[in-house]
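Q: Could you predict the 3D structure of Aminoglycoside phosphotransferase domain-containing protein?
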Amino acid sequence: MLVRKKGGPAEKLEKDDKIRSHDFYSPGGHIRFFLPQAGRNFEARIIKAFTPFTNSAVLLLDTSAASSYLPDRVILKLADRRFTTRFDRHWNLDTEQDFQANLSQYFQRHGTAPPGLDDDSLVNETPLWFHELRFWHRSATAHRVECEAYKRLHEAQNLGLIPKLYGLTKVQMADTEIHPSLDVIEGLLLGYVPGRPMGSFRLGVDIPYEEAEKVSQKVLEMGRRLRRYGITHNDIHTDNIILRSPDNSPVLIDWGHAGFGVADAPLEERWNSERVWDDYYGRLRVILKLESWHSFQTPWANEEVLRMARKWGKGGFKFWNERIEASLSPGWERLYEEDKSVDVNTGQ
Ligand SMILES: Nc1ncnc2c1ncn2[C@@H]1O[C@H](COP(=O)(O)OP(=O)(O)O)[C@@H](O)[C@H]1O
Ligand SMILES: [Mg+2]
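A: Sure. Here are the predicted structure tokens for Aminoglycoside phosphotransferase domain-containing protein:
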């Protein structure tokens, strides 16, 4: 049993199991989304799709049609269960038909969604459609978590440490009224950060090592500032840090795995929470080190060391970093805390 509505994103589908995300969200195409602050739908042109999609479908939109509510360029991040490519999963028209038919049948029989969506032990025992429903559940949960993070991180938005949230939205797929996974795709409208994710830079080619060192210091400062809010990110990696042009200031995106364990505690507790420390102190240093962004400027990093490291390229910096680290680790840790605006013990 198929439950699809003409005019929804599924309308374009034909019997072809090679259908992929770009059939739905191709640049130049249009997308209709509901904007609560206006109480109506708007149509926007897709300027860019950030493919390959992993957990969600992220689009850059021309939103000039909604210019009294939104800037002209906005990011739409859709919790679209179909395009999760994680876990070796590839959605296609057959799995979609199977999903819709079985979910509808289940509802007719039981009047409710099946239990056990959070239960990982069921992974090998359940039919494919149930897995599809788990993916929906996963992306709906990540969407809710991300909404909460943005709602709590107002100040960080104003400081430019994370994108601005312009609103929550929905894209209507169908109106079966059987289950939200069949009817709507929920989304976030976020400020567009012009620039590039750190993960896309080739050090020494796209960005000189000296500039990478400056960026590293800015990333650590971003970490110190975010640490004060006590909200863990839990998915920090270089593709989730965009360097905003033109000054390469870092912006941390993708808050779908955030944690709020100590978010309401007093500042000193937030600042000293082990989990919060892990993210904004530990994790950031690990990625800067592993991906060679940080050249570990210590008293050892004199002209001669820098000259040799430069001569050897990326491997050279790694070599010297390892030597410096091996013999002087308390030294380089101290040098990360040059920012006197935050007390390193209390976050005040
Ligand atoms: N606000 C933004 N401004 C500019 N690019 C963005 C923004 N949000 C996301 N992107 C781009 O889309 C990609 C995927 O977004 P992300 O939020 O990390 O989604 P996912 O949860 O699927 O990883 C990012 O790596 C980045 O290239
Ligand atoms: Mg991401």
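Q: Anything worth pointing out?
A: The chain has a mean pLDDT of 84.
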